[in-house]
Amino acid sequence: MIDSITLWTVIIGLGLGSYLLRFTFIGLVGDRPMPAWLLRHLRYTAVAVLPALVAPQVVWPAATGGEPDLPRLTAACVTLLVGYFSRNVFAALISGAVSLFAMLALVG
Amino acid sequence: MPITTSKTPVPADWFRKGLRDGTPFVLVVGPFAVLFGVLATEAGLNVLEILVFSVVVIAGAAQFTALQLMTEEAPTVIVLASALAVNLRMAMYSASLTPWIGAAPLWQRAIVAYFTLDQSYACAIAQYEERPDMSVPERIRYFAGAVLPVVPTWYGCTVLGALLGAQIPQGFALDFALPITFLALVAPMLRTPAHIIAAFVSIIVSLLAAGVPWSLGLVIAGVAGMMAGARAELWFATRGAGR
After folding, report:
1. Given an 8 Å threshold on Cβ–Cβ distance, is A40 in contact with B233?
2. Domain residue extents for chain A
3. The whole model's pTM is what?
4. Which domain holds residue B72?
5. What digits encode the pLDDT tens for the residues B103-146?
6. Taking a contact as any Cβ pair under 8 Å apart, which residues of chain A between 58 and 97 contact chain B?
7. What backbone torsions phi and psi does residue B104 show, to the nearest 5 degrees?
8. B155, B225: one domain
């Protein structure tokens, strides 16, 4: 059981810390110009962080106890390829979901 | 870049456009929030504590991390450091949004900061890059629309999970809703070789660094991917291949 002092310390500390992480750049830098090298790096934030967030879950899914899983790997590849070639988020999402359930039904 | 210029007409109402683009995320955020409510109940938190947790922190992955470590009775400092490390990407999102909406009034930026989530960031940055001619107020309206359906879902579904407790059936492969959504969002953003290189490097590094404690592997991989993308951009530019 978690004692309530620990719990509230964590809730408040994590809340404040998360807000500061989110506020620092957008709030304090604002519309001051940023150096070109920094802007060049920031252009790649989304395509670098979001795949890194999910890659371990794709390769070692928690649902299979961390064992690589053919249906999930296939679904991830289908989603990426359909999204890349169609440039359409929903086509990618639906193809990914359909391929996941189809593969789960086939392979189990 | 003619490929990225959308042929669809300029929306009259950017808030509505955001609302339309953000609504499908309800399907991803909902189950994730229910799961948090269920696990937090199992860890002994009451409904009020769970709701406050979700409202104050508003970051799924960090909340799961903190909850997990608290149930393992890790020291409070470690709990905070680990969960904040998981949330370091929020600082990167914030920095990445700054060139687009940094000129908005401070109070709007203060509100945007609270609502900077994986979903709202991904939605907004994809839209801003697709239509660089949007004005700053239009970008803010779009952001507000995109985040509006997600946030009540996050609060409401954590409470739902708390009330349902452990009655939720397993299965449905809902664990995979999150990876598929983010991959679907990112794939159309891979517009140039530099973007592809950035994504590729970050994936490889995130797998290699998966064992790094405190989820710092994610931040290491993100920075490596950004550096690779920036390097590649310079390299392609000097070769005259263009961006």
Report:
1. yes
2. 47-107
3. 0.76
4. 2-189
5. 999 999 999 999 999 899 999 999 999 999 999 999 999 999 99
6. 58-63, 72, 75-76, 79-84, 86-90, 92-93, 96-97
7. -70, 160
8. no
